[in-house]
Amino acid sequence: MKNLTLRQEVAQMVMPRLDGMKLDDSRYLSKVQELIQAGIGGFILFGGTFERTPYHLREIQSLAEIPLLIASDVERGLGQQLAGGTRFPNQRAVAAAIDRRSRKDINLLDSMLAAVRIETRAAGVHAVFSPVMDVNNNPANPIICTRAFGDEPDTVSWFGSRYIKQLQKPSAGGRIDVIACAKHFPGHGDTDQDSHTVLPVIQGNKSRLNRIELPPFRQAVRDGVGMVMVAHLLVPVLEPEKPATFSKKTVTALLREGMEFNGLIVSDALDMGALASIYSQEEIAIRCVEAGIDILLHPLDAVATIGAVVSAVEQGRLTHQRISESVERITAVKTRLGLFDKTGQKTVHVDSRKNQRIARKIGRKALRIVYGNAKMFPLKRDGGTACFILDDDNGADTGDIFIRMMREHFKYLSIMVLTPGSDMPESLMRDSITAADSVVLAAYSRISASKGHSGLTDSLRDRAIQILRVAKAAKTKSVVISFDSPYLLALLKDADARIAAYDQMDEIQQAAAELLAGK
Question: Which pLDDT belongs to residue 341?
């Protein structure tokens, strides 16, 4: 590592995308090989299977002169990316399921995190872009929402701390299997905009920032988190004119020096609209490095990014020392992960059935009746039940698990699926409600990049409000379940009961139907 050229050093700082589902394609693999020959430092993995991807990653590693750091977004476990991996609940659901005062619950959480750690490393992934340490204190946040543990700094700090300690738990030899990543510094929670599309602005004075946004990140640093991801945000109180990823005051003065963070600082994806709609990819990369970023994540063109940073050093805009500092930190992390020796290559046994049982148990515990009396359940199993699926995502299979379970439990069930673009005759809606003993509204609205909102679109929300008013007038019991954002429940006040499920995973949908049936 000491004899690297400037270009090879810069290449270590670049982490482009790796499509796991394309690794069987020889043409795609040849492009990956070209990046490896360019000396790339690692990849961010998207997609694949637990059966084939580990093999492909070993094959790719064998081509690299310097071990590759493989990272992935696995906030919900390896199953979020690899088919066959275990899919765990999102962070908000986990926080709802786990009672911090219960040793039994804490042990269950630790078992989940151990499963994530073991599965992730067994797949050949070393860096987990988790936990999300944002305090989601804006109900309209379109991209964080249920990805965060909650809307209180204390809750986020406690759960984030547990995630970091368990994910980075060292083995008997002192090696760690994966490094965790606290994101999205300095806090992406208090905005109703998505940085995949635009540059969000985080308002507030320093006192508020120190009270709400920053405490979870300070806790993460104290816990020894291996990596911190900086968000594409404009935080005027820290830097009035520069995005956080371009701000030396934010990245170096606050995080590196002020918080005394000595791990890796990674940018959020460089192709996101917050920056990419304004600056060239080359300029984005240079400004990030100027600010103190160590790893340039997901550039559109990795080779062009390397060339731009090298040119910036040769022209005096960046110093060689600035590059060497990042490479030293990258090397230190790869060493800590055992990537330079055989301990980093040992086979690990994965008990998938056990991990799935843990996921089911946590998922089922996540359900919360946030308004109403639990004594209204079970709903009449032999009475008429009108079930409205509020599908904000226009998904082909949205609600299928919930519908199937409802049909098992309720004898006379009518199902109506509503999407933002659908139109249901008002007479049909009224007849369904007045003929029923109970009305169930199941809301589905995934948190996804560039979608632009969380919860329901205005048209779908208005239709839900109308349904509940008709049910109230008819004196028909009504229940609303949100399988995503809990905040939309506050908008549906006419329901007799409101249930937060937080997540669409199959086990939670099954548990919700069983709750309604008194199971």
Answer: 87
